């Protein structure tokens, strides 16, 4: 198979966009000390899910999830494709709403909320409408443009670190496994990998490269949690909405013309988030298009965007949003875990069938 | 495809027309104070803003003051009364008076962090004088740049290692942290110099409980990893300048009593020396002097249960979390800290020094 | 026999520069037609006479004449040959015409140094209006038998010759085939401008990025050929059109390679930085001045505030006004004759340099920003590209005025998306190594 870097790079960027805002808070909320344990569990499950998913997909070379489930029959399509659709849609609504709020809290205090939501949705929809190949090549451009500045800020945010906050290293408390915040944090862990199933007829990729990308993402899960913890300590970091943003805000660089490097960092990750939104819009519209093939793909994008916008407008405040987060996190878990398992099951079944027909 | 591009552009244009220009005020219609002073008069707060005022030729500075019940209320009052919008995002230094410091400023600090109006990087200081006088003096004395107080703390300008550098987020951290307190610089109007530093205030959970002098602040900075380079130590037999320092800790809990052995490696250069003084004598004298100073300071802060040296950090892995929560009250007063200063004379300038 | 040339005469009779000369060579009567304006008749006829003297019979004569030119069977062909500036002759007995390559009048300028693309080091020839000279220049640059030259005559009323150049084995077969097909299918449409050619090739003219790279330099064109691109040379157009254009054309010029490698690298980096400055600077100014001043350091913020003291408009209007003046100056200096050109520079300098600031209409920082923008804009290779860049900065200006720095990132997002979507004959504008081997 040809060497194709776009899919792994997009995979990497999608996760970077998701990691830096909600994820640190959720993890810090979920446990008091030794945060690496919950992160490690999350990263490990990320890898397991990813490997299962890739394995499942590899039974159907050149097919997208949509066509796989459709071929499997109406029941499967109803049981799994429809949840997938709702999952993407809810994630879309929630993340547009949440991130607009974050943008307003952090750097646009005078701008109305709907206006920021409209911007996020419109430009993501624009990219989504250009088709999957454009999305992936755009991703490569963003990687070139923005990753250096992300790394720059990450290096400088080590400035205020007090390494003693790493201690104690071991803790044998595992209540985080049942903490609702920990489930919420799975949005960052499992939010990105499902997209790979929609790439396929258009683009090819090697499983090895995707795993490599996942390996590159893994340190960022740790960094995003540990930078605020090492700067403020768990007790203080747990009082913050966006610990990572506050931690980068405390960075003081004397020789730079700009005072607040946070803004640039946050905006870089917002750009990656817009890529995530793009993929979410794209997949939602694709599934929509699959169920209602009579409308043109671009109109199904428009429909998705308008629906998302309306739903976003109807979420009045942050606590309501938290509520939606809470119940949607269970839905997310269902989708994260069943989709790869089912795919694997279907794959094994077709393989058996294939062998039988050979006999 | 072309149509779509056109559509997107039309949408963008509509967006532009729809929103017009909301509250985005241009930079010349904002006032950007650099110093914020807060004092308490009876039950009310009084807020002082030192605002560099760009006018035609040079930048002048002016002081605006207003009182009210909460700080944000006062700021909005000032905003309404002034011709431009007050933009606190450029505040560099926050000065509070001693009364507030003693009563505690937890509420103020959390409000700053919550609203994100005031940068968490802003420096914090306590003024021993009356703020009215202090700011009046500032207005009178300030040169064109209007940033005297700022330069005083700026690392690449007037800062010296005897001044504690405490930012708003440090204070916020100390409010919640189990094992980490901070010291804030104490300021006073000087006679010949505009600002005089009189040491540091020791903070415990958002309240100032004690004071330490500038020399002790030096130790505080050394403990917290700030460089102490350039500081001059005077003894009766010699005067030396510190070139470099590094610090090692060894901590353990023995029978419920935390034991700490700290070794400080100092590199110094000799500036002035009495006749017939050997290297060994200087070394001994210097480490003795510093040790005494440390012991005095430590006894002071230990008594007030304020862990500004962040000794508790060193015991994080040796005490269970539940115990750590009682660090300040239960363990800290019992800490047995031993300081060992290892002095190394790097050079003696271009004159020889007796070796033994 | 009169019929044969009567029609020809009728077709051109109204033109005063058309001539018909009958001449007796020995006993044979020859009739010559042509246009005075395109050929030097007297020297042409002398040449012919030298060849033709001592010819005995008519048969021999006809074959000799044919060897000088070519035999034309149709009336229309004769028309075309006359319009090309050739001499058409017919004998009294034969039913066909013979066109003879005439000595042309010198209507073209000589091969000169390029006017729009200045080169520091590297070959200095540039294309001229004459197709055959241009082809010759290309042949000289690229000495290989793999260089293929395909000619097409396009047009309804007046024909235009278009040549398609490519290097066999290098250019993708699919590209060449689809281009030739487009050109064959639309022989009837007129071809005068770039837009016509784009329509001919089925490319939308509504794009913000030039699909062709225009170059005056045979060297650049030939290097593009060796990289697998194709080149169009159109008669009467003094540059080559390289298809497809790519992002790298904006900052990589082949002539860079005439410097040492570190210098090449430096020059290219400069151009990349130039593009970013040209696109981002005005937007960044607006974002920092009116939406996110907290990002600036206090010292900078104060001096900007000081420089804007007394400026009556919001930053957006200020920038748009000055940009308008600037764009007008550029347009004016293109339009004006060279002798008056410096006036514009001077007046523009006065407006931008001093007067606008003194009158408190704009801040002097803006002047610096805009001057930097303009200078940076000029580092881009190719005038067409620099116009695109000029356009792009307005996206940033508007977005920044609404969303501040977020707007700038949004603008980058939009432009990256746009660029990544551009394809010409399915060749992407931004070639990425990782994309090879895609299922299309």
Automatic annotation (TrEMBL), chain B:
Q: Which UniProt keywords apply?
A: Germination, Lipoprotein, Membrane, Palmitate, Signal
Q: What is this protein called?
A: Ger(X)C family spore germination protein
Location in the cell: Membrane
- What GO cellular component entries does it have? membrane
Pfam family membership, one: Spore_GerAC
GO BP field: spore germination
How does the entry describe its membrane topology?
Lipid-anchor
Query: Spore germination GerAC-like C-terminal domain: from which residue to which, for each copy?
Result: 198-349
Organism source for this protein? Robertmurraya siralis
* Family affiliation: Belongs to the GerABKC lipoprotein family.
Stored InterPro entries: GerAC_N, Spore_GerAC-like, Spore_GerAC-like_C, Spore_GerAC_C_sf
Q: Where does this chain mainly localize?
A: membrane
């Amino acid at each position: 198979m040809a060497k194709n870097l776009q899919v792994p790079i997009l995979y990497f960027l999608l996760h970077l966009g998701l990691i830096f805002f909600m994820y640190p808070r959720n993890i810090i909320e979920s446990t008091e000390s030794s945060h690496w344990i919950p992160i490690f569990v999350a990263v490990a499950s990320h890898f397991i899910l990813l490997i299962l998913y890739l394995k499942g997909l590899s039974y159907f070379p050149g097919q997208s999830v949509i066509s796989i489930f459709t071929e499997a029959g109406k029941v499967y399509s109803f049981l799994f494709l429809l949840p997938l659709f709702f999952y993407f849609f809810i994630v879309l609504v929630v993340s547009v709403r949440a991130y607009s709020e974050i943008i307003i809290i952090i750097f646009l205090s005078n701008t109305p909320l709907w206006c920021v939501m409209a911007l996020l949705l419109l430009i993501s929809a624009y990219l989504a409408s250009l088709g999957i190949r454009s999305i992936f090549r755009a991703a490569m451009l963003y990687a070139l443009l923005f990753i250096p500045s992300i790394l720059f800020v990450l290096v400088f945010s080590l400035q205020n670190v007090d390494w003693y906050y790493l201690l104690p290293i071991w803790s044998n408390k595992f209540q985080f496994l049942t903490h609702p915040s920990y489930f919420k944090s799975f949005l960052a862990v499992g939010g990105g990998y499902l997209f790979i199933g929609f790439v396929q007829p258009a683009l090819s990729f090697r499983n090895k490269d995707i795993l490599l990308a996942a390996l590159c993402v893994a340190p960022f899960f740790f960094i995003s949690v540990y930078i605020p913890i090492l700067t403020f300590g768990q007790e203080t970091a747990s009082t913050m909405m966006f610990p990572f943003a506050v931690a980068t805000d405390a960075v003081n660089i004397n020789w730079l013309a700009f005072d607040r490097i946070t803004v640039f960092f946050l905006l870089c990750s917002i750009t990656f988030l817009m890529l995530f939104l793009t993929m979410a819009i794209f997949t939602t519209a694709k599934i929509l298009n699959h169920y209602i093939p009579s409308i043109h793909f671009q109109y199904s994008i428009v429909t998705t965007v308008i629906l998302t916008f309306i739903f976003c407008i109807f979420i009045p405040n942050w606590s309501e949003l938290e509520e939606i987060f809470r119940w949607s996190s269970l839905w997310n878990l269902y989708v994260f875990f069943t989709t790869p398992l089912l795919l694997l099951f279907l794959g094994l079944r077709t393989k058996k069938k294939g062998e039988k027909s050979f006999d | 495809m072309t149509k779509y591009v056109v559509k997107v552009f039309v949408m963008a244009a509509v967006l532009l027309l729809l929103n017009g220009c909301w509250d985005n005020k241009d930079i010349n219609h904002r006032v950007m104070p650099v110093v914020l002073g807060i004092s308490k008069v009876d039950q009310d707060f009084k807020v002082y803003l030192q605002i560099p005022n760009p006018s035609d030729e040079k930048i002048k500075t002016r002081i605006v003051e207003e009182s009210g019940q909460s700080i944000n209320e006062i700021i909005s009052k000032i905003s309404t009364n002034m011709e431009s919008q007050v933009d606190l995002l450029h505040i560099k230094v926050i000065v509070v008076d001693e009364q507030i410091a003693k009563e505690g400023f937890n509420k103020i600090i959390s409000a700053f962090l919550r609203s994100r109006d005031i940068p968490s990087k802003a420096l914090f200081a306590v003024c021993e004088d009356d703020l009215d006088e202090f700011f009046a003096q500032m207005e009178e004395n300030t040169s064109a740049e209007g940033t005297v107080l700022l330069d005083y703390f700026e690392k690449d300008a007037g800062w010296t290692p005897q001044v504690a550098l405490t930012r708003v987020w440090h204070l916020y951290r100390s409010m919640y942290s189990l094992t980490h307190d901070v010291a804030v610089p104490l300021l006073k109007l000087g006679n010949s110099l505009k600002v005089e530093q009189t040491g540091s205030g020791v903070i415990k959970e958002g309240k100032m409980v004690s004071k330490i002098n500038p020399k002790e602040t030096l130790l505080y900075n050394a403990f917290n990893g700030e460089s102490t380079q350039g500081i001059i130590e005077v003894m009766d037999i010699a005067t030396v300048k510190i070139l470099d320092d590094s610090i090692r800790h060894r901590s353990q809990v023995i029978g419920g009593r935390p034991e700490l052995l700290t070794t400080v490696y100092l590199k110094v250069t000799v500036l002035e020396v009495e006749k017939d003084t050997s290297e060994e004598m200087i070394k001994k004298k210097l480490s003795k002097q510093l040790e005494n100073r440390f012991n005095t300071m430590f006894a002071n802060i230990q008594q007030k249960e304020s862990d500004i040296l962040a000794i508790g950090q060193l015991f994080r892995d040796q005490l269970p979390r539940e115990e750590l929560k009682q660090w300040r009250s239960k363990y800290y007063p019992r800490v047995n800290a031993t300081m060992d200063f290892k002095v190394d004379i790097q050079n003696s300038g271009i004159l020889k020094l007796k070796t033994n | 026999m009169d019929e044969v040339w009567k029609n020809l005469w009728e077709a051109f009779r109204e033109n005063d520069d058309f001539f018909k000369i009958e001449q007796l060579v020995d006993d044979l009567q020859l009739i010559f037609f042509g246009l005075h304006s395109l050929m030097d008749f007297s020297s042409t006829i002398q040449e012919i006479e030298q060849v033709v003297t001592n010819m005995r019979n008519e048969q021999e004569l006809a074959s000799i004449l044919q060897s000088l030119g070519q035999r034309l069977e149709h009336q229309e062909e004769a028309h075309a040959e006359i319009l090309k500036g050739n001499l058409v002759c017919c004998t009294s007995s034969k039913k066909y015409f013979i066109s003879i390559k005439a000595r042309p009048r010198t209507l073209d300028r000589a091969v000169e140094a390029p006017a729009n693309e200045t080169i520091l080091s590297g070959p200095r020839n540039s294309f001229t209006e004459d197709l055959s000279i241009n082809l010759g220049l290309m042949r000289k640059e690229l000495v290989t038998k793999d260089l293929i030259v395909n000619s097409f005559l396009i047009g309804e009323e007046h024909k235009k010759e278009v040549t398609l150049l490519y290097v066999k084995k290098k250019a993708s077969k699919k590209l060449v085939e689809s281009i030739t097909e487009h050109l064959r299918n639309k022989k009837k449409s007129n071809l005068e401008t770039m837009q016509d050619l784009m329509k001919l090739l089925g490319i939308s003219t509504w794009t913000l990025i030039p699909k062709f790279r225009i170059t005056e330099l045979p060297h650049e064109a030939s290097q593009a050929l060796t990289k697998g691109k194709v080149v169009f040379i159109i008669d009467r157009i003094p540059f080559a059109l390289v298809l497809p254009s790519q992002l790298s054309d904006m900052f990589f010029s082949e002539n860079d390679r005439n410097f040492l490698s570190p210098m090449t690298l430096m020059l290219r980096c400069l151009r990349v930085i130039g593009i970013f400055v040209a696109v981002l600077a005005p937007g960044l100014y607006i974002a920092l001045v009116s939406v996110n001043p907290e990002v600036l350091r206090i010292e900078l913020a104060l001096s900007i505030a000081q420089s804007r003291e007394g400026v009556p408009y919001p930053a957006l209007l200020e920038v748009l006004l000055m940009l308008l003046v600037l764009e007008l100056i550029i347009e004016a200096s293109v339009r004006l004759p060279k002798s008056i050109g410096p006036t514009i520079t001077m007046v523009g300098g006065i407006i931008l340099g001093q007067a606008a600031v003194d009158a408190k209409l704009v801040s002097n920082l803006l002047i610096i920003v805009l001057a930097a923008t303009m200078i940076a804009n000029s580092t881009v290779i190719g005038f067409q590209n620099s116009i695109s860049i000029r356009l792009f900065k307005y996206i940033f200006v508007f977005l920044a005025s609404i969303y501040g720095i977020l707007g700038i990132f949004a603008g980058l997002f939009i432009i990256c998306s746009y660029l990544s979507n551009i394809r010409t004959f399915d060749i992407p504008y931004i070639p990425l190594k990782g994309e090879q081997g895609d299922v299309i």
